[in-house]
């Protein structure tokens, strides 16, 4: 396998492992913290981490200084679409649905990513891709239908928010690859944009509360690990692999891993449907990844 593909898989798997902690963490944080306040704090920590990271190396400092106003505006636009809109919609979905339902619906975005890649990047849509995506998607459906929990919020609103958020992030990933800008600088500007937008909208629409004790530790993990490190490694994986669909399919591991984390942290049960879904999800990933030739850029 090409070294770029190997590196892309390693980076993507790093993102998947970290993202698997998101649903359980947000379930805990959003019990006491308003949605946009949580998004603002997590995004600001991500921005601060990436700012220090970029200023700690002469090459990255040069990239920051060399960013033009036009590039910064494009990065900010990506931030508004991809991580402000996506995260705000996803957090709203979590508040209206069960955490499992929201997490699973959120992972429609790899399907959106592959479809947008075919439309905007000219990547071919093969029978293998179609079957692999179908298997993985069936796994997600099995997880949804197998959940015995019920949501106390507006179910329709939650479903619409999660699907719309998935579309935003799928389009963001493709546009980010198409624009091909320095990812260290791009993600820093994106998280700054997300923090500023959620601050403005949150102060106008929510009653913010004081953050206490262990909640700060949760926000540090959210901001540094989940937002800064995982999104950066994912952007690098998608941008440098040369094969978006194969890398994107790995994201289907996250819903199952999230269930495992939730079972350990929140005491949620893993049922038979989860095990069936695991077979389908991994089957789709293996079908896409084994025996297929990497596509050229």
Q: What are the defining features of this structure?
A:
single chain; 297 residues; mainly alpha; 14 helices; 0% strand; globular
Q: Could you characterize the architecture of this molecule?
A:
With 297 residues, this protein is mainly alpha-helical. The protein has one domain. Helices cover 79% and strands 0% of the residues. It contains 14 helices and no strands. It starts with a helix and ends in an 8-residue tail after the last helix. The C terminus is likely disordered.
| Percent of sequence in beta strands | under 5%
Tell me the count of domains: 1
- How would you characterize the largest beta sheet? none
| Number of beta strands | 0
| Helix run count | 14
Order of helical and strand elements: HHHHHHHHHHHHHH
Which ranges are low-confidence, i.e. pLDDT below 50, for 5 or more consecutive residues? 291-297
Bulk shape: globular
Indicate the mean pLDDT.
Answer: 82
- The helix fraction, in percent, is over 70%
Query: Cα-atom Rg, whole angstroms?
Result: 18 Å
Structural class of the secondary elements?
mainly alpha
First-residue to last-residue Cα separation: 15 Å
């Amino acid at each position: 396998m090409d070294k770029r593909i190997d590196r892309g898989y390693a980076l993507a798997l790093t993102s998947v492992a970290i993202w698997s902690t998101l649903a359980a963490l947000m379930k805990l944080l959003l019990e006491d913290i308003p949605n946009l306040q949580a998004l603002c704090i997590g995004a600001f920590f991500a921005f601060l981490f990436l700012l220090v990271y970029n200023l700690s190396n002469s090459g990255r400092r040069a990239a920051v200084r060399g960013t033009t106003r036009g590039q910064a505006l494009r990065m900010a636009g990506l931030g508004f679409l991809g991580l402000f809109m996506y995260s705000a919609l996803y957090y709203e979905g979590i508040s209206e649905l069960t955490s499992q339902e929201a997490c699973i619906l959120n992972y429609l975005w790899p399907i959106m990513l592959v479809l947008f890649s075919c439309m905007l990047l000219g990547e071919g849509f093969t029978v293998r891709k179609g079957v692999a995506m179908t298997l993985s998607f069936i796994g997600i459906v099995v997880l949804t239908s197998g959940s015995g929990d019920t949501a106390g919020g507006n179910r329709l609103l939650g479903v619409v928010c999660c699907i719309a958020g998935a579309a935003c992030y799928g389009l963001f990933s493709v546009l980010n690859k198409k624009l091909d800008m320095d990812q260290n600088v791009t993600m820093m500007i994106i998280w700054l944009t997300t923090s500023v937008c959620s601050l403005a909208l949150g102060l106008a629409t929510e009653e913010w509360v004081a953050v206490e004790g262990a909640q700060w530790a949760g926000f540090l993990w959210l901001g540094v690990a989940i937002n800064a490190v995982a999104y950066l490694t994912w952007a690098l994986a998608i941008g440098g692999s040369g094969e978006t669909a194969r890398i994107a399919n790995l994201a289907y591991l996250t819903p199952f891993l999230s269930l495992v984390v939730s079972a350990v942290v929140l005491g949620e049960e893993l049922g038979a449907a989860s095990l069936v879904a695991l077979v389908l999800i991994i089957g789709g990933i293996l079908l896409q990844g084994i025996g297929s030739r990497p596509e050229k850029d």
